[in-house]
Structure formats: C-alpha cells, structure tokens
Specification:
2 helices, 234 residues
Length: 234
C-alpha cells in the first residue's frame, strides 16, 4: 500500500511539474443509447402478472432511447498540447423494445401494441489521454479513453395496450437489482471558445453477460451517443 501511494505521488508531482495549465469544467449531456449484438431484440412479449398493470420485457432492446448525464472534468494540458484528465459523473441510460404480445399468468399470450423502456443508472468514471488542436480562437480536444461504470438503479417505463383492452403502464422496478459494473471504450470530442464548450462522445461497452452465465450466451453491448455543453470553472 505504501509503495502504491509513493508511485501515485510521483505521478502527481510529475504532472504538476510538466503541465502548462489545469482546467476544471462542469458538463451536462443528452443523447441516445441502446444494446447491440446478437442477444438484444427489436420486439418481444411482456411478462405480466394477472391483475397487475406492470411487467417486464423478455429481453433487452436494440431501439435507441434517450439518455442523460452530468459530470465534472479535471484536465491537465501539457507542452505540445497533450492532455490527461478524467470525468466523474452520473448518467441514466435507456434501451427500448417494442411489445407485440402480453403473457399474464396462465391466460396465455394476447396480442398487444406498445413498448417497454428500461432505464439504467450508473456512476461514470472516465480517465483519458488526448490531444488539443488550436483553430484560431477555438480549442478542439480529442479524448480517447475508457469508462468504468458501476450500476446504481434500474426501472422500466411500460406503455402497452393488449388486444383484450387491458393497459400495462405501471412503472416497474428491475427484479435483479442494480445493473452490473460496465467497462466501455470511449471517444470524446470537445470544442471550446473562452469558457464555453460543446461536447460529443461515443461509447461501447464490453460484453459482460457471459461472465455471469452458466453457459455461453449471445453477445450484448451497450452503445451510447452523447451531445452536451460545458462550462470551464478554471
């Protein structure tokens, strides 16, 4: 432990000695997210309990759905415009699936129309290395990195009408608890003018489903597109 602390201090002092500037920014973003791979589905049926107005879809969705996030960014700029930094924040990702049937208890399947939209909350830690291009008065940062995202909570929005006239629109908790930790690759872009900036990023998660399965399952990856605004505090 003492050795790791000593190494961390050396890295910190090296950064301080060679950095030309230190920046702190606050950011907010919105975008679209969904699952990709062979396992997610575009349409499926809703598992519902008889007499209730809730349920859960039989599979994760590949339809793009809105996502939102906020974060704080710390960044050092070195000589020759190289960057090192991290973002720490919270975001709510979603994946949507169309519902074409409802199964409620022993009643069997009933035709239906509507959708199920699953929302997953994550804390997001995003370390990165990058490079800054200077275009007149605009600074353009290219920021490849990774995301380490432990899950916090999950809930599902349902809007389904069955062929027998029953509505399913009750907000439902996820019965398996919070989503699992995700590790994602990320490419970020940020354009700044004075203290104001516009940000964009794309992220793709690693396939974690096989780590928890008793036998191999088809791959599934979270994909996220973000667009946001930034304000530099320092």
């Amino acid at each position: 432990m003492k050795k790791l602390t000593f190494i961390a201090l050396i890295i910190f002092f090296f950064i301080k000695a060679n950095a030309q500037s230190f920046e702190i920014s606050v950011q907010a973003n919105s975008g679209l997210s969904h699952y990709t791979g062979k396992r997610p589905v575009h349409s499926t049926f809703l598992n519902a309990s008889a007499g209730t107005h809730g349920g859960y879809a039989n599979g994760d969705g590949d339809i793009l759905s809105p996502c939102y996030g906020v974060d704080v960014q710390w960044q050092y700029t070195f000589k020759f415009n190289f960057l090192i930094g991290t973002q720490l924040g919270y975001e709510l990702l979603s994946n949507k699936v169309d519902i074409n049937q409802v199964y409620a208890g022993a009643a069997g399947g009933t035709s239906a129309t509507g959708y199920s939209d699953e929302h997953n909350g994550y804390f997001n830690f995003n370390p990165y290395l990058g490079y800054r291009f200077k275009l007149n008065k605009v600074r353009l940062d290219v920021l490849p990195g990774i995301e380490i995202a432990p899950g916090t909570n999950t809930f599902t929005t349902i809007n389904v009408k069955a062929g027998d006239g029953a509505y399913y629109n009750k907000l439902s908790p996820y019965y398996g608890g919070a989503p699992a930790l995700e590790v994602r690759t990320r490419l970020g872009l940020a354009a700044y003018y004075q203290r104001y900036g516009i940000t964009a990023s794309w992220s793709r998660g690693t396939d974690i489903r096989n780590y928890y399965a008793d036998s191999p399952v088809p791959p599934e990856n979270m994909e996220i597109f973000r667009l946001g605004i930034s304000y530099r505090l320092r």
